[in-house]
């Protein structure tokens, strides 16, 4: 899943990005409200972590503009302010949750996962099935023929992108876009390393290579 952090405190933003990346998310970071609005408006994010006090455009206005445009991406607001009025204003503009600084990183991760679970419950089922595989995107667990298979965060993220399009060909650019962030400028063949690891753990026949196109998770 892809997250956007809009936070002008650069050390905090980098720290959050590193932690959430370790949790298996693809994370992009911007430090300006206008840039945050532009990025969030592209519609490629599953959740936005949005600070209120931002240069260019504050978080309230960014949130209100996204909602006015019909963008329903979950928004977790961050602020150094405190008090019921600030929380009410944030929620009134369309934010889904609110966290006051300083906050526990563990609490932030829990809030992020809760919002993503809520979004999944309102839309598609968080449990994906393809052949002998069951992929629980909310619990981030994978089962093959009823037996759980332990995956790393990145392995799970790659498998998830194949599972949501089971039976279809998924290209390397699509996987890179959703599993790695926009700043990734390494070798795109890194995907092959994770595909090989998934085949070792799940079975060689589970993921097919479609030459020149990408990969397909066997759906039946």
How would you describe the overall organization of this protein?
It is built from eight helices and twelve strands. The two termini are 25 Å apart. With 220 residues, it is of the alpha/beta class. It is 41% helix and 22% strand. The protein has helices at residues 10-22, 33-40, 59-68, 84-92, 105-122, 153-163, 172-179, 190-202, and strands at residues 2-6, 26-30, 47-51, 75-79, 97-100, 127-130, 133-136, 141-144, 147-149, 169-170, 207-210, 214-217.
| Range of helix content | 40-55%
Number of helices: 8
What distance separates the N and C termini?
A: 25 Å
Mean pLDDT: 84
Proportion of residues in extended strands: 15-25%
Give the biggest beta sheet. Answer: 5 strands, parallel
Approximate shape: elongated
What is this entry, summarized?
By secondary structure, this protein is of the alpha/beta class. The chain has helices at residues 10-22, 33-40, 59-68, 84-92, 105-122, 153-163, 172-179, 190-202, and strands spanning 2-6, 26-30, 47-51, 75-79, 97-100, 127-130, 133-136, 141-144, 147-149, 169-170, 207-210, 214-217.
